[in-house]
Specification:
single chain, 801 residues, alpha+beta, Rhopdopsin 7-helix transmembrane proteins, Hypothetical protein af1432, 7-stranded antiparallel β-sheet, 22% strand
């Protein structure tokens, strides 16, 4: 401690000079600041100036000490008086600072009594200091004009000590009333100053208390500045949050207004409920797949949401007319894009809205309306909306037709690519259709799984049927409750129908069964009886719990019976387990082939089926999970070529062995669509990939592209770019003939060329000339190809290098 005191004595004048400059600068900064409240600003300014002058006078006292001249005589006395007076003054101003804090920040209506007492003690201390100048009570000066302590000097320290103790008691009691930075600074000032005052009593020749007070005054400003910065930061954050919240509310208001307007438009046509919202969702899906930014996707969403706003100006009698429109009525309908543009063009800050409404019926070949624009002259937004609008129009119910099955919708897009639709966006929609294997992109897309089946009231047999549930190799669980509707009837039992159709629904009329390729497999009654319609074999296993008689009695009593159904399908076999508290049935069905879909529909006779819950169990079955009860049907029982033949029953359900691609290689094969093939893309595909072991799906597998023999191509890798050029040769007639040639069987040759980072595939197939160029940006060690497809058999594969 003595060494520290000696060190302070040696350097105290330099320390005083530095602190004087700091206090002067801080006083300037306080003077120009505009963020402090006026009372606090003047208090802080007074503190900094008092601290600055305290050190100036303290230095002068040391400077003139021992100077016996007249000027030295007066300067020593004035300087020492000002040192004592300013020390008391700083403590007094600090007390005022506390009062200001507790009134403005602490919520006090009037200053605490102890702080008022501190102010009074400051006044008394100043009075005693003045008296001391005439009595020498605190200090005197000897004949050499040097400062000397008097016996009463302890009293001059007693006043600051008492004041600081009073201040500190208030600070500790009301510690949490003010912010963290401010309470730290005031606590430090009171505690450290108090300790330094005590130490000063026992030391001489060093201005410990003065240096400490001035240093703490500097800290008061620093902590006040930190608090001010935090307050400004909080205010900025709050303002930003308020702005964001306001923007969010404005966006929500805009969205709700746009949605309400769209709903009002759709309400004009009883057959287009939710059309605008679905078109908006499909448009965003296409836009995102095309790499549009989030801002662009949002603009496209709202433009699509309001694309039909012009229908407000069309008579309801025309919009809701049953049957075909007259030329005059169709002409009126064709005016809705112009009306929509006129309505939305007044929203000047969102010009994209009117663009979507105005041009969404333009065709890529220039044969659309109202302006007859062609190709990329049609605004980008409108080309996207046109694709989404056409998709929803085809997959939704209209006054003149039921929804078109998704597979047929896909064919329409294939046919309309480059004519009705922008090829890029049509290609994206085709890819979205391919990904939507369970046909969720349709009019009822917002219905959750299982919620799409409402209660069924069945009177006569099959009078009411549910929509089909697609069976895959994922196990589906269905729970339902059945009860009798008519006590006079003895037969009252739910039933399950397994079938296939393009739209996943049961049809009774011969025309619809023909048009939608309806095929019924079996009807399974809840009592375990099975009616076969179009299957190769059925095996039934029943375990009795309470027995069939107990089950029949419960039904006749009108009891509600809970049924649990588990259903799945793997290749050409389906498995269904049906149970209630009386019996358990396990039914294995050998389907006609592996290529058709298998849907499950609920129906019954004289019963009410309610509380239907449909869920996926998460269990996936594989080969051998269902015991085989019929031989697997094969269309590849012919001699193989260089690699084994391959039968592809469904979308890429199998693929040939992989083979390494070399420059100039030619691959020939025979292909035939399976008997169940009915669509354009039921044809072979060429798959380009790389993997560590050369196998499809092998180690480090990376798929680059797929080239279909119907002319489609798609990048499967972010680092690969694919471009497909398709030309129709003179031998091409139409797509129906193209499908017929596929079913008849065709020879095909694929020619491969490697050029740096490009893989080029050329082929002529059923009247199409296909030229595919795949560019790989980062290079690959080895490239492989394999043959795959959808509902086709590929045989006699020959690889010529």
């Amino acid at each position: 401690m003595d060494k520290i005191i000696e060190l302070l004595k040696e350097y105290q004048l330099n320390i005083m000079f530095a602190l004087t400059l700091i206090c002067g600068m801080l006083a300037f900064f306080v003077l120009i600041t505009k963020t402090l409240i006026p009372s606090r600003k003047y208090i802080m300014l007074s503190l900094e100036l008092s601290a600055m002058f305290l050190l100036i006078f303290d230095r002068m006292a040391y400077h003139y000490r021992g100077n016996t001249s007249d000027i030295g005589f007066w300067m020593v006395r004035i300087s020492n008086f000002m040192v004592f007076a300013l020390t008391l003054g700083i403590i007094f101003i600090f007390t005022l600072y506390l009062i200001d804090l507790y009134i403005h920040d602490g919520g006090f209506e009037k200053p605490p009594l102890r702080l008022k007492l501190s102010c009074a003690l400051c006044g008394m201390g100043l009075i005693l200091l003045i008296i001391s100048q005439f009595t020498g009570f605190y200090y005197t000066f000897d004949e050499l004009n040097q400062y000397q302590r008097s016996p009463g000097f302890v009293v001059c320290y007693l006043f600051p000590l008492i004041i600081l103790i009073l201040d500190m008691s208030v600070i500790l009691e009301q510690y949490k009333r003010i912010s963290r930075n401010l309470r730290i600074s005031i606590l430090l000032f009171s505690v450290v100053t108090l300790l330094s005052a005590i130490v000063q009593i026992f030391t001489y020749g060093v201005s410990l208390i003065n240096i400490t007070i001035v240093g703490l005054v500097v800290l008061l400003y620093v902590y006040a500045l930190l608090d001010m910065n935090e307050m400004i930061e909080r205010a900025n954050k709050l303002e930003i949050e308020m702005v964001r919240e306001e923007q969010k509310n404005m966006h929500l208001l805009f969205e709700q207004t746009a949605t309400a307007l769209a709903n009002a438009i759709d309400a004009k046509d009883k057959y287009t409920h939710g059309h605008s919202r679905r078109v908006a969702k499909y448009s965003v899906k296409v836009a995102r797949s095309a790499g549009k930014s989030e801002k662009e996707c949002e603009e496209i969403y709202f433009a699509a949401l309001l694309h039909d706003v012009g229908k407000i100006g069309i008579k309801d009698s025309i919009i809701n007319k049953e049957g075909k429109l007259t030329d005059e009525e169709y002409g009126a309908i064709k005016t809705h894009p112009v009306i929509g543009m006129q309505i939305l063009s007044s929203i000047s800050q969102s010009p994209y809205l009117s663009i979507g409404a105005h041009y969404h019926h333009e065709r890529y070949d220039g044969h659309g309306y109202p302006a007859g624009l062609k190709g990329e002259d049609i605004p980008d937004i409108a080309r996207i909306i046109a694709v989404a609008d056409a998709y929803d129009a085809m997959t939704s119910k209209r006054s003149y037709r039921d929804p078109i099955p998704q597979q047929l919708v896909r064919e329409e897009f294939v046919k309309g690519t480059g004519t009705q639709f922008d090829p890029n966006y049509a290609r994206i929609m085709l890819h979205l259709i391919d990904l939507d294997s369970e046909y969720k992109m349709k009019e009822s897309e917002d219905i959750g799984e299982g919620e799409g089946i409402s209660d069924l009231i069945c009177t006569s047999y099959r009078s009411t049927v549910s929509d089909g549930i697609l069976l895959t190799n994922n196990v589906i669980h269905i729970h339902l409750t059945s009860s009798m509707t008519d006590e006079r009837n003895t037969e009252n039992i739910p039933s399950i129908i397994l079938f296939d159709s393009l739209d996943g629904r049961i049809h009774e009329s011969e025309r619809k069964r023909r048009d939608l390729l309806y095929h019924e497999y079996v009807t399974i009654h809840a009592n375990g009886n099975v009616e076969q319609a179009g299957v190769r074999n059925v095996r039934i296993k029943t375990n009795e719990t309470a027995g069939a008689a107990a089950e029949t009695k419960a039904m006749l009593r009108g009891e509600k019976i809970d049924f649990d159904i588990e259903a799945t399908r793997y290749k050409d076999h389906a498995l269904l387990r049906l149970s209630n508290r009386f019996r358990f049935h396990e039914i294995i069905i050998a389907l006609p082939d592996s290529t058709r879909f298998c849907y499950l529909s609920l129906t019954g006779k004289n019963c009410t089926i309610e509380g239907v819950e449909v869920s996926k169990t998460g269990e996936t079955i594989g080969d051998g999970s269902i015991p085989r009860i019929a031989e697997e049907i094969s269309y590849i029982d012919s001699p193989a070529g260089d690699i084994p033949n391959v039968q592809i029953d469904g979308w890429r359900s199998a693929s040939s062995e992989g083979f390494e691609i070399t420059d100039g290689m030619c691959v020939s094969f025979h292909t035939m669509s399976l008997p169940t093939a009915r669509l354009v893309w039921h044809c072979p595909f060429a798959l380009i990939y790389t993997s560590a072991d050369g196998r499809v799906g092998g180690e480090k597998y990376r798929e680059l592209t797929i080239v279909r023999m119907d002319g489609e191509g798609w990048e499967e890798d972010d680092r690969a770019e694919n471009r497909v050029i398709v030309n129709k040769l003179d031998s091409f007639t139409d797509w129906n003939d193209w499908k017929a040639q596929n079913k008849a069987g065709q020879e095909c040759e694929l020619h491969f060329k490697l050029d740096k980072e490009q893989i080029i595939i050329s082929a002529e197939y059923c009247g199409l000339s296909i030229h595919s160029v795949t560019t790989v940006s980062d290079g690959v060690p080895k490239l492989y190809a394999a043959l795959t497809g959808d509902q086709c058999a590929i045989t006699n594969i020959r690889i010529k290098r």
